[in-house]
Amino acid sequence: MQFDPERGQIDWDGLFTFLLTLLVMTATLGLPLLVSLRYVYSTAKNSSNDCTEKQLLVFGKQLKQGNIDSDYRLRLTKAVELMRKRENCRLLLLGGGIKDEISEAAAGQIWVEASGIEISRMMREEQSQNTLENLKHAREILSSVSEEAVVLISNRYHLARIATIAKSLRIDHRLCGCEDNFSITAKLIPRLLIEAWYILWFKTGLTWARLTQNRRMLDRVT
Fold this sequence. Notes:
By secondary structure, the protein is α/β, with parallel strands linked by helices. It has helices at about 10-25, 30-45, 70-85, 105-115, 130-140, 160-170, 190-210, 215-220, and strands spanning about 5, 10, 55-60, 90-95, 120-125, 150-155, 175. Helix 1 (about 10-25) crosses helix 7 (about 190-210), helix 2 packs across helix 7 (about 190-210) and helix 7 (about 190-210) crosses helix 8 (about 215-220).
């Protein structure tokens, strides 16, 4: 759900499914959220932090006054590490930005290039504003580049949401956590709950779209 002034419209499908998810949560006393939270935790804990595939994707993150934050820096650091190990790796950087400001993907490319990786090994996607759009645009770009599985690099707390959406979009993928391991901290708990909610919201919308055969909604999430 969002209101994007540049796109000029409210996301009514998102608003409806947001309210529907709240209704489901109320009717089930929050049990689906707990199930979703367990999935977020297990994915964060058990995902690999290495890969053998050639195509890497790094998810952008909102910039702070044009600068990357610590989470985004970890994602980029992992990508650089993998690209140094294997010269045949290629990187797709994902993420748009605010009008008249540098995109998340462009800021990431500058950082990676400064780390010694040739710009010829990188591509950028600069239109997306969220994880779903990241993956939909990436699917379009990569369909003409490679038929192999792609490595989705992000912070471990984010991996379950990425996997959920990638599966819905039928993207052959491997997850790669940018941290060496996962441990829960007090600061991280709200982030995990937010990720669990996003997954529940997405799955509720997907289930509703399939039950009602809503082609507009299905085209958006599959």
